[in-house]
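Much of what follows relies on a compact textual record of a protein's fold. Each token is a code from a learned vocabulary of local backbone shapes. The record below shows the convention in full.
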Amino acid sequence: MRSAMVAAVIVAAWGAGPLAQAPAQGPGRGGGQPVQPIQMVKPGLYMVPGGGANSIVRVTPDGVILVDTKLPGEANYTALLEQIRTVTPLPVKTVIVTHHHADHTGNDDRFIAAGAEVIGHAVLASSLDTYQFDPRPAKPTVTYQTERTVKLGGVEVRVLHLGRAHTGGDSVVYFPDLKVVATSDAVTTGATGPLADYAGGGSFVGFGPVLDAMLKLDFDTAIPGAGPLLTKADVQAFRTKIGTVIDRASALVKAGVAPAQLLMQLKTDDLGWTPRIPQVDAFVAELSAPRKN
């Protein structure tokens, strides 16, 4: 009964259409929460919650490196700038966007107009061509494939594409001098489980390898796409849960459970969150394909 209720929640979360259909690529979690006061993560590094997603502010002597620009709108843009100005008068020189969803890219156009460069993965840029959101976010001015290093005011920030997970163009942002990693929505917090946006190139099976690569980085603090700060142990625990879901779902597929029944039989109530897998056929195809150890 519990598993059936979980499946019903997943259906309700994506509308009345069948789970086999890809969902509209929505704005993301936390869209109704206003921009919140800035919080110091470590000296020189800050987090601005609310407005759709966490934004991250790295202050350098030559300007600001900003990660993610919140849901579109002058109010969110202005509120974000006001929070940044409470810690530095310097302008935003570089913006890094972690995937194409509008809660992370919504004000890219305003930062570009103000003279900032915007960096994103190449797949992020191409995903915006078909992204169903109005207004559609602006494309990054600079794209990369595997890794790009940002250097500003003696500070180095690494932008890493570790593989497909939440979307096909996810970026992890690593601050090596502070031992902090920004995970974007490759890690989620609270009861809101991870989403594989297959319509946006995502892969639920891909979460495991991405998290494994992330955990090889030298960090002690993680900033998720939304929600409170995490430790490396929290990220490891999240990775373990992902593996549990994959193992259980794989066993069901191997036992011949039909895609339409998979989520109803998939036990997740002991994990503390429900994975969001709106395109079950794509998930089953991944589970059925040979996987590398």
Q: What stands out?
A: The radius of gyration is 19 Å. The first strand starts at residue 39 and ends at 42. The CA atoms of residues 63 and 89 lie 9 Å apart.
